[in-house]
Amino acid sequence: MSVQLAMPAIRSTAPSGQPLLREGVGELRDQCGRVAKDLRVSLTDRCNLRCTYCMPAEGMEWIPSEEALSDDEVLRLIRIAVNRLGVEQVRFTGGEPLMRRSLEHIVAESAKLRTRTGKAISTALTSNALGLDKRAQTLRNAGLNRVNLSLDTLDPQRYLALTRRDRLADAIKGIDAAIRVGFSPVKINTVVMKGVNESDVVPLARFALQRGCQLRFIEQMPIGPRNLWKREDMVTAEEIIGMLSEEFSMTPASVPRGSAPAALWNVTSSAYQGTIGIIASVTHPFCGDCDRTRLTTDGAIRNCLFAHSETSLRDLMRAGADDATIAEAWAQAMWGKALGHGINDPAFVQPDRTMSAIGG
Ligand code: SAM
Ligand code: SF4
Q1: What is the pLDDT of residues 48-61, one digit of tens each?
Q2: Is the minimum distance from the CB of 350 to ligand 1 under 6 angstroms?
Q3: 7 found inside a domain
Q4: Whether residue 357 has its Cβ less than 6 Å from ligand 1
Q5: Residue of 306 and 62 predicted with greater confidence
Q6: pLDDT digits 0-9 by tens, 234-248
Q7: Which atom of ligand 1 is least distant from the CA of 224?
Q8: How many domains is the chain built from?
Q9: In this protein, which residues make up the domain named Radical SAM core (predicted)?
Q10: Whether the CB of 220 sits within 6 Å of ligand 1
């Protein structure tokens, strides 16, 4: 089957002026004209799973606690992002963000912030759902708007092999709790790997459609343990669509996807109907529409998941910098954002930090 995935337009690379802020207020613009409004905050680099595509089984070097941002430091940077730099969405991630005990406090304080047009900012969580059954309601009460929950298989043995932990039942409990307390839509993220979980594609689609969740299949990216990723082992978006087409009738959804990474498909079968997203990060990069800025657990700004340099706002903060100076440094860091992630370039070099240490 031949499929068409929407390709984002790469904007002009012509410099559009220096990213100067006025008295520390402005926007996170880069030299290609993209403006970052979506902040990803990694709240910890630790995790209770060890997904093979994300972390090695052993030997991770954790960020020492004194190097990690405190709650007050995280919240100060989020306030600077929203109040001075025009950020409108904050997504909490990791590592596993539910391992941060103060998550509810951080969410509640962030949810009080307003965008420049006076609307509440949008708050979101990316999580493996372990333990969410006990915290879904408190997180919702704290003002969390959206959840993306990761699940790569419905087979307990495969879950154990893939995450190196026997926790499938807990993950499903967490997903069901998110639905029960009213998060809508609950999105489920699935990374598809050759010879590992291709046979889960259709069962996961049924699982999500049955529950009214939006499943998003993600192409595996070279951001996990070193030398693990091989292009020829990657399951492409086209292949995933081909697998789904054997069970479902699929038509591209007409809604424009904007800066959202997933191309949406309307899927129907005699029993199910809904929407499934395909995130073709490798074969159809969406860098041209990227509106993200990332803050690591230890307070560094990364202008791209695949960036090779970082700017430590923690060091500035701890040296006594005021908010305007920190905002300037953040804007400067984003100004240097590369046009694309470069995965498809033969000279591509994987960054030193893995996904769990950057914040997915
Ligand atoms: N622990 C949380 C979770 O798993 O949802 C949040 C952090 S995790 C790094 C964020 C997302 O990144 C997950 O959906 C995970 O599947 C995805 N991810 C991790 N490594 C990846 C890789 N090499 N390629 C594509 N996606 C990856
Ligand atoms: Fe943990 Fe998420 Fe990485 Fe899996 S993908 S090891 S759950 S951080």
Answers
A1: 999 999 999 988 89
A2: no
A3: no
A4: no
A5: 62
A6: 899 999 999 999 999
A7: 23
A8: 1
A9: 31-253
A10: yes
Tell me, yes or no, whether 28 lies in a domain. no
Protein residue whose Cα sits closest to atom 8 of ligand 2: 95
Neighbours of 29 (CB within 10 A): 22
Cα 169 to ligand 2 centre (Å):
16
9 in any annotated domain = no
Q: Does some domain include residue 295? A: yes
Question: How much is the pTM?
Answer: 0.93
What's 289's domain CATH number? 3.20.20.70
Residue range of the domain that includes 120: 38-358
